[in-house]
Amino acid sequence: MSNLRIIPRLDIKGPNLIKGVHLEGLRVMGDPQEYAVRYYEAGADELVYMDIVASLYGRNNLSDIIRHAADRVFIPITVGGGIRSVDDARHILRSGADKVAINTAAVARPALVTEVSRRFGSQAMVLSIEAKQIASGKWEAYTDNGRERTGLDVIEWAIKGVELGAGEILLTSVDREGTRKGFDVDLVRQVSDAVPVPIIASGGMGSVDHFVQVAVQGHADAVSMADILHYKRIPLGQIREAALNAGLSVREL
Amino acid sequence: MEKIPYPAQIDRSRFEGDSHAQETKYGLPSEVRFCVRCVISNQRPNSAVEYSHVKESKKKTINLDDEGVCDACRFAEKKKSTIDWDERERRLRDLCDQHRSRTGEYDCIVPGSGGKDSFFASHILRTKYGMHPLTVTWAPHIYTEWGWKNFQGWIHAGHDNLLTTPNGRVHRLLTRLAVDNLFHPFQAFMFGQKSLAPKMALLHKIPLVFFGENEAEYGNPISDTESAKRDWSYFTAQDQSKVSLGGVSVPDLKRRFGVEQQDLIPYLPADPNQIEEQKVEVHYLGFYLKWHPQSCYYYAVEHGGFQASPERTPGTYSKYNSIDDRIDDFHYYTTGVKFGLGRASYDAAQEIRSGDITREEGVALVKRFDHEFPERFADEIFRYLSIPESEFPEASRMFEQPNMTREYFMRLADQFRSPHLWTWEGGQWKLRHAVWHEAHRVA
C-alpha cells in the first residue's frame, strides 16, 4: 500500500490565503507563501492551492503565487481554480504546478478532463468535486466554490470523471468544510470504493482522530486539511506522529 | 377605494434615449452616485416607518459626503478607529447588571430568526453576560428548509422561544397588497420584525429588548448610531386609523378586504403610552459590541451548528445571510427594480465595509449577480401571492386579476422602474448607471 499523503490545502483569494466555513464567510488569513513554506518545512507530502473565487470572478491569477512557491517548496503542488482550457492548464503547469484540479469547467464541459489528461497525463488531471449531502447516502456535486448546484450525483460524476481521464479526485464535503466536525467518512468511502484512482479527502478535519477515521473507514489515499493547520490548532508533525502511532502508513521523516 | 387593476403595459418610449433621464420616482436623487469605498449608491433608501408607507411616500436616501463616501462606510471607519469598545462593553455590563434577574425569570427579549446575528446576540447575552433572554420570532412568509433547521438549532443551543406566526391568509393578502401598491413583498414581515419584540415586552412585562446591529451600519443617518436605543417611531403609533398596511389604510382593509380587527393584532404597532408606562427600553447590542456579520456566522456555526444555505441566494453570491424566507429573493429583486440596487449590492457593500472583500471584488460580484431573476421559488411565490375567491371571498373581488402570474409581476416591475435609473434598449432593460461602469476608483 502506498503512503497515505498529508496535504495542506491553501485556499486563495487575490493575494491572500483565506479560510471559510462551508466554503462561505471567507476570512483573510495572510500571505500564502509563508504558510506554504511552513507546511513544507514541517513535512507536508504535497500542497493544494485553490483560487477559490476564480470561477466566481471569472479570473485566474494563481500563476505568480505558484511561481514563488515552486522556488521554495519542493513537493508536488496541485493547483485549482478558474482552469477552463488546456491552455490554462499548460500555463499553471509551466508556472511550477505538478497537477491541475478542475471542477466548474469540467462540469460545464466534461471533454476538458479528457483533453487535459491526454495532453499532460492523467496523473496531472485532478477532478475536484464539491459534494453536498442531499439525502442519506446521496450527494450532489456543486460548482463555483460550493455556490451553484449541478444536479449531478457525486458518485456517478466521479465514475464518469475517471472514465474521461481524471487520475485523482479531490473530494470536498461542503457540509463539513471549516466546521472541524470530522470528514464525511461515508462520502469518502463510497467514492473511494467506486473508482480505481486515489481520493484526497477534504473538509472537516478537527482532530487527529478524524484523520485516522477517514483513512481507515473512508479508504482515503490522501488527506487534505486547512483550518487545523492555518489556525495552528495542531502542528503538522503531531498529526503525522499520531497517524504512525495508529499504524497508518504515512511517510516517516 | 377602487379595485386594484391588472397592471397596464407601460409606455417604454419614455425610457428610450435621454429625454426622460432626469425623471425620478419615490423622491430619489436624480443624479446617481456610487460610494467610492463600497458599492452602494445614493439611491439606497433609509429605513422607513412602514406604518405610514403608501404609494406616494417619498424616500430619504443614504448620504454621500463631499469625498463621495457613504454614511455606512463612515460609520465602519468609526467602528475601527474612534469608538472605545471597552468603554461600550462596560456600559453593556452596567445595563445587564441593572436588569439581570435574580429569580431566574426572563430579563430581556431578543428578537430574531435564529440566523447568525440573532444567534450571536442571544447566545452571548446568555453565556457571557449572564442574562436570561426570551427569544421571540416573527415567522418568515415561507420557511426555507435550512432556515427552519437553523431556527431549531438556535433553540437547541439553549434558548426558549416564542414563535409568532400570523394568520396565513391575512399575511398573504397584506403581502399581495404591498406588492401591487408598493412593490414591496417583504413589508408584512417587516411589521412584525420591528414591532413584535416591543409588544412581547409589554405582554410579558420584560422591559429590556435587544436588537442586533443598528440599521445605520448599512446607511441610516450616522447620527442614529450615537444612541443605543431604537427610535420608537418604527414600532409605535398613537392613532391606528392613520396606519397603513400594504399601502391600504386600516379602515379600508376592514371595509373592502374582509379583514377583521383580530386579523390585524399581530401587525399593529405598540401603544407608545404603554411603552412609556412600562419603561420598555429597546437597545441595539451592536451599539455596545463591535458587530461583524461574518464573525456572527462563525460564532453560530461553532456554538449552534448553524448551516449556510446549500446554494447561493439568487441575486447574490452569499450563502450565510438572510436565508430563512423564500420570499426574500423577491424582496431584493424588487429593490433592484426600484432603486437599481439588488442583493449583491447590499451584501458586497457590507462585506467591503467589514474588510472581508475588496471594492474591486465587490464590483465584480454586483456585475455578475445583482439583477438576476429569482427563479428558484418563483412559482411557489406567485401561488402565495394569488388571492383566489375560494380562499379570499371578499378580498379577491378587489383585484381585477386575483391570480398572480409572472407576466403580472413583470408588468408591475416595469411600473415601478424610474426613468432616471433604467433605459429600454435593444428590447431589454439596462441600468443607466451601474457601479461597474465607473472608472476604477479607490478612496
Please render the helix and strand layout as text.
The complex is a heterodimer of chains A (253) and B (443).
Chain A: E1 5-13, E2 16-21, E3 24-30, H1 32-41, E4 47-51, H2 54-57, H3 63-72, E5 77-80, H4 86-94, E6 99-102, H5 104-108, H6 111-120, E7 125-135, E8 138-143, E9 148-153, H7 154-164, E10 168-173, H8 185-194, E11 199-202, H9 208-216, E12 222-225, H10 227-230, H11 236-245
Parallel strand pairs in A: 1-4, 1-12, 4-5, 5-6, 6-7, 7-10, 10-11, 11-12
Antiparallel strand pairs in A: 1-2, 2-3, 7-8, 8-9
Chain B: H1 71-80, H2 85-99, E1 108-111, H3 116-127, E2 133-138, H4 145-156, E3 160-164, H5 168-182, H6 187-204, E4 208-211, E5 244-245, E6 248-249, H7 250-257, H8 261-264, H9 272-277, E7 281-284, H10 285-288, H11 293-304, H12 328-339, H13 343-353, H14 359-369, H15 378-384, H16 406-415, E8 422-425, E9 428-431
Parallel strand pairs in B: 1-2, 2-3, 4-7
Antiparallel strand pairs in B: 5-6, 8-9
Helix pairs in contact in B: 3-11, 13-14
Structure description:
The complex is a heterodimer of chains A (253) and B (443). Chain A has helices at residues 32-41, 54-57, 63-72, 86-94, 104-108, 111-120, 154-164, 185-194, 208-216, 227-230, 236-245; strands spanning 5-13, 16-21, 24-30, 47-51, 77-80, 99-102, 125-135, 138-143, 148-153, 168-173, 199-202, 222-225. Chain A has eleven helices and twelve strands. By secondary structure, chain A is an alpha/beta fold. Chain B is mainly α. Helices cover 38% and strands 8% of the residues of chain B. Chain B has helices at residues 71-80, 85-99, 116-127, 145-156, 168-182, 187-204, 250-257, 261-264, 272-277, 285-288, 293-304, 328-339, 343-353, 359-369, 378-384, 406-415; strands at 108-111, 133-138, 160-164, 208-211, 244-245, 248-249, 281-284, 422-425, 428-431. In chain B, the strands form four sheets. Chain B has a three-stranded parallel sheet, sandwiched between helices. In chain B, strands 4-7 form a two-stranded parallel ribbon. In chain B, strands 5-6 form a two-stranded antiparallel sheet. Chain B starts with 70 loop residues before the first helix and ends in a 12-residue tail after the last strand. Chain A: Pfam families: His_biosynth. Chain A: It comes from Azospira restricta.
